[in-house]
Amino acid sequence: MAFTPAQGIGTSRTNGVSNRDLAIKVFSGEVLTAFEVKNVFLPLVKTRTIPHGKSASFAVIGKYDSAVSTHVPGNDVIPNLINAGERVIEIDNLKYASVFVDRFEEAMQHYETRSTYSSEMGRKLAVEVDKAIIATLNSAATGAANTGDNNGDEGQPAAQSAISIATAGASTNGGKGDLILASLFNAQTAFDEDDIPGERYVVMSPKNYNRLVQSGAIHKDMTSGSNGGLDTGKINTVAGHKITVSNNIDPEDIYMFTNECIGVVKLLDVKTEAEYQIQKQGTLMVSSYAMGFGILNNGCVIRMTTTD
Question: What residues make up the domain containing 218?
Fold first, then answer.
């Protein structure tokens, strides 16, 4: 099918030998590196790769909630039931980022552009995946379910109550940080009381992260200890949770969640393809993936929101 490239930089020839094969190898590696560096949420959720098909099923086993029985000599043992269900995650449409590299235009350039283009493509794919996971976290926080789920009353905790952090009433960033810190412990209490499974994580915006660092409880030590300090402007963990920063969430939002909350199904992992097209006198480069995102356990996320 014909296409019109929006812009492009090309691959030239030196002494009659094409250097296009080398450029493709460098390009592919840079896309994967950019994806791994910029993506925040994907390593924090359950991921499953399927070789073919349109969906994947995650089994859910409930608690043994029946009363413990007392055996009477001579009587049969009466078994009880442990409820089970499944969570079905369907693959979304193929997503891609692309660029056209014109052979003539690249030959006229005095600077290298391919590495920048490839980094930007990788960054865009990473942001797209992050936003899909964030949207799924928001759905989980409201108690939504996936299409095709078989909910068998497995005894999973219901969706957690959202937490509003009244930072608008605090006059300093340190005071706002104190309120965020208190809310993180309140969220942890809610998780502990519901026996929430899985490793826990906290992701927040740079604005709220830097407020947290300035909390009076955090920066008692002016130099970096094992948990960071004012000199580095970093904090590693709060309430036992690893703290991560993301620009892909709303500036007011903070998420506490576990790796049991969201599932990601990969049909086609991140892949880069390049093809020189004679009729266009340039190379079309495409990076793409096919993944699906779904809810595994609604109770495994708490969304906190600051008020300013």
Answer: 163-262+298-306
Total length of the chain: 308
Q: pLDDT of 98-129, one tens digit each?
A: 999 888 877 776 666 777 777 788 889 989 99
φ, ψ (nearest 5 deg) of residue 191: -65, -45
How confident is the model over 45-66, as pLDDT tens digits?
A: 999 999 999 999 988 887 787 8
Is residue 272, in this structure, part of any structural domain at all?
A: no
Look at the chain and report how many structural domains it folds into. 1
- Residue 184 forms part of a structural domain: yes
| pTM greater than the 0.85 cutoff | no
Contact present, 196 and 157 (Cβ < 8 Å): yes
Residue 153 counted as domain residue: no
> Please, are residues 101 and 9 in contact by the beta-carbon 8 Å criterion?
yes
What single-letter amino acid sits at 194?
D
Tokens, residue 230: 């004012």
Instruction: Find, among 289, 186, 296, 279, the residue nearest to 241 by Cα.
Output: 186
The three-state secondary structure class of 225 is strand
Using CA atoms, how far apart are residues 284 and 277, in angstroms rounded to an integer? 7
Tell me the three state secondary structure of residue 152.
Answer: coil
Asked if residue 78 belongs to a domain, the reply is: no
CB 160 within 8 A of CB 301: yes
172: domain CATH number is: 3.30.2320.10
